[in-house]
Amino acid sequence: AKLAGKNCFRYYNRAMDHAVERRLYLEQELRGAWDRGELRLVYQPIFRTRDHMLVGAEVLLRWNHPTLGSIPPSVFIDVAEQSGLIQALGPKVLHAACEQAMQWPRNAAGEEVFISVNVSPRQLRNGDLVGEVETSLHTSGLAASRLHLELTETAVIGDEILAVTLLEKLHRAGVRVWLDDFGTGFSGLSHLRQVPVDGVKIDRSFVADMERDPDDLALTTAIIAMAHALGITVVAEGVEQRAQFELLSQRGCDLVQGYWLGRPLNADALVQLLEHDTAG
Ligand code: C2E
Ligand code: CA
Ligand code: CA
Ligand code: CA
To answer: 133 and 170 in contact (C-beta within 8 Å)?
Structure first.
């Protein structure tokens, strides 16, 4: 038994070593990935439920490594976050996204399309987010109202005093703030009153189970009603099927995003989609 335990321990250690090694390797590779042109941005369209109009797009980062291939954001964003690399990467994404949004034509309703940028918890706590936002708006010339920031619910709820101060500064800068992955943090509904946000994004885990799980449907319905009572916009993400779209539409969900409506597109393809929409 003693020997087995020892082997077991050694095996565990070795597995740990591999995980640690792989992480360190990814971190080292990620450090120069932007400058080597391995990182690129894709844009997933966001539609208004009422009239199916394309009203905005979320920017998502992609990493294509020369030997490892495509590495999912769930892996490398975490590496960037843990290592602190996100503090250099985040502003680059923000800046590039603002520059890109300046190239977009108006939508078919003649409205300016917004760009939604993910902000990681580390960027909230350490960097100078407000300064970076102001710099990006200034150098790109993008109207502040066209920039939306997606902050995760857990990051904001974690430190409410810091969050409220920061959100007020962002509002003064003129940008919109959304709570991402909403509903996963449990405390969400009760805190919605205290944090000044413009919208919530219902996490796709709720959308995925809405049809099967009455609790998820009830929660989604409650989030929409509560948000509207507070004058907050609601986006549902991860809409993969027509039935999900219909359920959300019936409940008055304002905006929708998901594979059923549109996959993330490269910059040119999004411009083409907008131009096509405008012409048709
Ligand atoms: P997120 O912010 O929740 O982004 C939405 C994710 O859902 C994206 O995955 C998107 O491709 C995916 N998605 C969209 N529609 C559907 C659908 O209908 N079904 C399913 N199953 N998935 C859908 P992605 O691009 O892999 O990004 C994963 C996460 O990585 C993001 O989650 C976000 O937290 C993070 N991330 C991506 N880009 C950035 C970035 O530039 N900065 C930061 N801080 N985080 C990022
Ligand atoms: Ca997001
Ligand atoms: Ca999300
Ligand atoms: Ca999510």
So the answer is: yes
